[in-house]
TrEMBL record:
InterPro entries: F-box-assoc_dom_typ1, F-box-assoc_interact_dom, SCF_F-box_component. Pfam families: FBA_1 (PF07734). It comes from Davidia involucrata (Dove tree). It comes from the Eukaryota. Residues 5-183 form the F-box associated beta-propeller type domain. This is F-box associated beta-propeller type 1 domain-containing protein.
Length: 188
């Protein structure tokens, strides 16, 4: 079992142990993210806890995803205390990849019945938000092949479904649906 988590700065050779969060029951998955609040200048650790809803049988996967509750717990580095910052207004079942851009953590939602698909957690405001997909992007067929990243300080979707091509969708103006631009790269 893992008893202690650390934040490390390998360049300086420094590290700090994080206080242990409250251990909850009926947990399906836990993910962590690390970010910086542009508003307060504070580093924060986000803990995303996906919990099973008690008292319900385990149905097929699509229904199982909907029978989860997602809680956000936050630690301001140096405070020594984890605090609950709320539940997600929708079920999130994602590949949390800790992409940080514009003071927010970003991830994709593996529940491909939910067509929002991209989410961000603003470290300063401590709120989760869906991010609009490109209007022409149909996630229902491609969710497994999609990865999220940052390229040229723009949020990007990397779509490798159409092998040997790599489609890159780049959000040129953060948060603006109409700013998504598609680039296709032919692999060699």
């Amino acid at each position: 079992s893992i008893d202690t988590f650390y934040i490390s700065n390998p360049i300086l050779g420094e590290y700090v142990a994080l206080p242990k969060p409250k251990i909850e029951k009926q947990v399906f998955a836990v993910a962590y993210g690390f970010g910086f609040s542009l508003a307060t200048g504070q580093y924060k650790v986000l803990r995303i806890v996906q919990k099973r809803v008690r008292g319900r049988p385990t149905p097929p996967l699509a229904h199982f995803i909907q029978n989860r509750r997602v809680r956000f717990v936050l630690l301001e580095v140096g405070s020594g205390t984890w605090r609950n910052v709320g539940d997600a207004p929708y079920s999130l079942c994602g590949r949390f990849c800790d992409i940080t851009l514009n003071g927010a953590l970003h991830w994709t939602d593996d529940d491909h019945t939910n067509f929002e698909f991209l989410y961000s957690f603003d470290i300063g405001e401590e709120k989760v938000r869906p991010i609009p997909l490109p209007p022409e992007f149909d996630i229902r067929n491609f969710w497994f092949w999609v990865r999220l990243g940052v390229l040229g300080n723009c949020l990007c979707i990397f779509d490798n479904f159409w092998f040997p091509h790599l489609d890159i969708w780049s959000m040129k103006e953060y948060g603006v649906t109409e700013s998504w631009t598609k680039v296709r790269i032919l692999k060699t």
